[in-house]
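Job type: complex structure
Entries:
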Amino acid sequence: MKRILVIDDAATVRLYHRGILESAGFEVSEAVNGLEALERLAEGPFDLYLVDINMPKLDGYGFLRELRAKDMPQAPAIMVSTEAEDNDQRRAYASGANLYLVKPAKPAQLLAHVLTLLGARHSA
Amino acid sequence: MAIELSDSTLIARELLSVEEAETVLEWLIQHPRGQLDLTDCTHVHAASLQVLLAARPKISAWPRHAALADWLQAALLSEEHAPHV
Amino acid sequence: MNALLNQFLTEGRDFLEAIGAKLLELERTTDPGPLIDELFRLVHTLKGNSGLFDLPEMTRVLHAAEDLMDAVRDGRLEFSRELADQLLEAMDFVSLLIDEIAEGSDDGQPPRTSHHATDAARLGAALRGFLGGELTATSGQLPASSEPSAAGGGWSLAADGQHLPEAVRMAVQARLTAGEALCWVRYRPEAECFFKGEDPFFQIMQLPEVLWRQVGAVASWPPLAELDAYRCVLEFEVIVCAALEALVEHFRYVPDQVEICSLASASAATTHGNTTATTTADSTRLSAEALESIRVVLEAQREILALTDTPAWFSGRLRAVGATLLGILATLERDPVASGLETALEAALATDSGTYLLRWLDHQTWPTAHAAPAVRAAIVTPAPLGQGAGAPRASDESVKFGRRADDQLATNRTLKVDQSKIDRLMNLIGEMVVAKNALPYLAARAEERYGVRELSREIKAQYGVINRIAEEMQDAIMQIRMLPVSFVFQRFPRLVRDIAHKLGKEVRLIMDGESTEADKNIIEALADPLIHIVRNSLDHGLETPEQRRAAGKSPEGRLTISSRQESDRVLIEISDDGRGIDPTVIRHKAYEKGIIDETALERLSDQEAINLIFAAGFSTAEQITDLSGRGVGMDVVRNAIARVNGTIDLRSRVGAGTQLRLSLPLSMAVTNVMIVESAGQRFGVPMDAVAETVRVAQRDIRLIKKRLTTVLRGRLVPLVALNDLLALDAAQLANDDDELAVLVVRIEKEYLGIIVDDCRETIDIILKPLAGFLGNLAGYAGSALLGDGSVLLILNPRELL
């Protein structure tokens, strides 16, 4: 069972992502900011991270840097933002994101990327 | 496949889709004198449209689809090609 | 309603509230930095949330607000009161949309809010107006109301830029003369639009009757070899035979990318209903596209590997890329070992450089984009069913229920519950209390009618147990119903600010004890009276800065609203340091209005005179303003407070200010009433109004000034017959000793005897307000169900008289 950590301060967005990912059979955990997400890592690495940028306490960039600095198996991370700016995308990649999506990611699109990143088979 | 390619002609059927934009672009770069047959074309995705506009290829047959033909002719036959900035 | 939408609405309201609070705080703070950051984050997140739904109007306004806050955050723009005003107005608009969506959502989808498109455009433009020239050049605004002159502008724009063919010019003129609506549209799709599944050309093709068209590049065309087919550089211009509104609707998903000018005069509003709403590419695009996704993900990894920085987390970043590439290989069902990925990753890690991985990437053969099935054909043709399967399902469906319990850790410990659910609990406990009350009747019947004393005792014992549980349950539900007074207080900062601005007064609002709680009904009943009181204070109490200076006060008036609990009452105090109420003025006003007579004019103490402002028909306003002079006087306020068993007390000193003190019960759900009988019917009278019950001999009742009176404990008490009050056509019955039962009630320190046929026991009831027409009946506080199933009408002595 692939475990995905959804990190977003907006409950609506978490619910949205959870709905999409659970419908595809993934196990979803949530964190409301980067700091809490780091704490969740104690449970062991996740298979994928879905990271918002703007969050209180520790933002998405900060979380990714901390995550990538950890000596643990690294899993792909998708940074989900509301900005379609080149600048943010570069910053996301530099911080350790593997994909940069602009919110709201369409369910099918998001799922396709999740499946690609997890190496899961797409629809038959 | 909605497009058929030869060295002299590109025949587009039904939809010239967003995926085909790159194919069309490649072909037009390699075949600057190539002609387009759009008889059976019903829609050109904007991505493909801008490839056509940038390349301004010779159109051997305009689409039968009247509205599309109107647009393509307005786009490709206009005198003042380079639009104002 | 769908859970996601519900969540959005709830969270949205919270955000709006927080945004409002932060904006007001900003006006006072000396350290705006953290507040501005927080404000930006709130607006940003709310915008993100709205984007999950098809709510272009809301998103548009929020987007503008976000850009504005971003500019403030970056120091490009100074925060100002005007800016706050505009943001508050925008948030009001969003709030309105949220309310509308909450009401209108039936199938889990938000209702269309396109009728607010012009408002959204106006607000968006107003917000962006603060940004000055910075953004206006790139985001064309829809002209919300195109005046004829503006129309001319649009026209010349089209005509001057590129000479219209004479035929077109004539056709346009002819149509305009015929009164048809014509618009000039310029559509510059954003560069990334293809990645969002949009097809701008399709959008353009869907336009109705096009009179003139032009399509080109925003800038000049690059050499073909340098053209990026997937970065949109197109610009469309058309003159189209459609009304402005229809076009705004047509382009509602891309409002920031179009400019629309009405060529017809504003009056020529022809209906062009057949402008079919285009199904956008997004909504028809059902099928996920693995190959497209792989292409995008590969592209991203290339970009990451091409980065030249080497931060502390560099190796983690490389390994994450490795994991991602591994995922792609697995997706393509390729063997990772055979592909040499691991070797390349090790080499990259060893050299601290992405080069080896980049080289590896280039040596692989990746599926090309056009091998992909033409999903985007869905734009014009329905997606083939086979591909439209959508989300793949894991083989084991049950796993999603095996969610780990600690997943819930992330969620808040506070539950948000719909009000109607609490109301239902309340009704249920009400019924429970009633059902419970039937047990003593049952016990009595068991004993008296069936003669089984043993059973009767057991029923009574059981009743005791159920009674205790019911009481605790009731208490628990009451606790849930408790709301903090901040529920009402929270709107005051905004209200006070707006009104003060309007009146040109400077007011400092001080609030205290916002967390004091009381029953929801009490709090809700408090809202209107409190607002009225606050308005009165601002309007009549506090002076203008000039007047205050002249009086030797600080130009800024103070308005204090505080709340605290005292035993089983909630006390709320509203005080100002304004001009106060002059008892002399009140006396004369009251006399002029015929509220008091000449003797009272001299006899009334100052306090009594001040209390006259609670008299019906009294208003101290010298002129009716649009704020508090709506014909609603303090009498209405007092009655509203009294309806929930509250009292109001007013103190004032000329020149020093006015203080109003409200005292309210903590809870009104359970009422202790005395049952009285009159004309064969039973009524309840709330015990807190009852001073005592006495028997008065007929001969002790006298007629003084045509009113029935008697002397009780040396005090003269007026008497009224309940049957007269209720217009029941019967005389009150006396007992065998020719005594009448009298219920003495106390109203505002005055005693009054109500003659009834008999006074009975007191009981606890759950008071329900009278609904429907009965709701308008004055004199009744409500009704309650009794244990035997009958309905008891509860009198409201205050209104009865």
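Summary: Residues 3-77 of chain B form a domain with the Transcription Regulator spoIIAA fold (CATH 3.30.750). Chain B touches chain C through 40 residues (CB under 8 Å).
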